[in-house]
Amino acid sequence: xxxxxxxxxxxxxxxxxxxxxxxxxxxxxxxxxxxxxxxxxxxxxxxxxxxxxxxxxxxxxxxxxxxxxxxxxxxxxxxxxxxxxxxxxxxxxxxxxxxxxxxxxxxxxxxxxxxxxxxxxxxxxxxxxxxxxxxxxxxxxxxxxxxxxxxxxx
Length: 154
Description:
Elements (H helix, E strand, L loop, with lengths): L13 H8 L3 H6 L2 E5 L3 E6 L6 E3 L2 E4 L1 H20 L5 E10 L9 E10 L3 E9 L8 E9 L9
Antiparallel strand pairs: 1-2, 2-6, 3-4, 5-8, 6-7, 7-8
């Protein structure tokens, strides 16, 4: 079996990659959408949907989908900063809620990859509902990065 090396691939494109990621799995079911990106950050949107409510009598997105949004935006910011898709694993993801999102409002997750070492990537970001200076939540995380396929030595 021939394995494509990451160095042989074009630079990671968050907008294009999300189209692929959202065809399947949890990100697709949540309906995550690309919003924007910069040099070391990516912003994704979690559209408001009634089946994602935290409480039936309040029209506010539940915390679980927001954590998933931030986790995916974290991975995308790491890949975008590294310019390549490589395997990563979430080691630590802390989300501190500041307030509930506005009723019937989408939530955006903007995450910056601010440091990459040989084996880890560090991220920080916010979830907001349109006003980045008044976040719904703040977050920080550490991800293990895997640059070499451990199966390639066999």
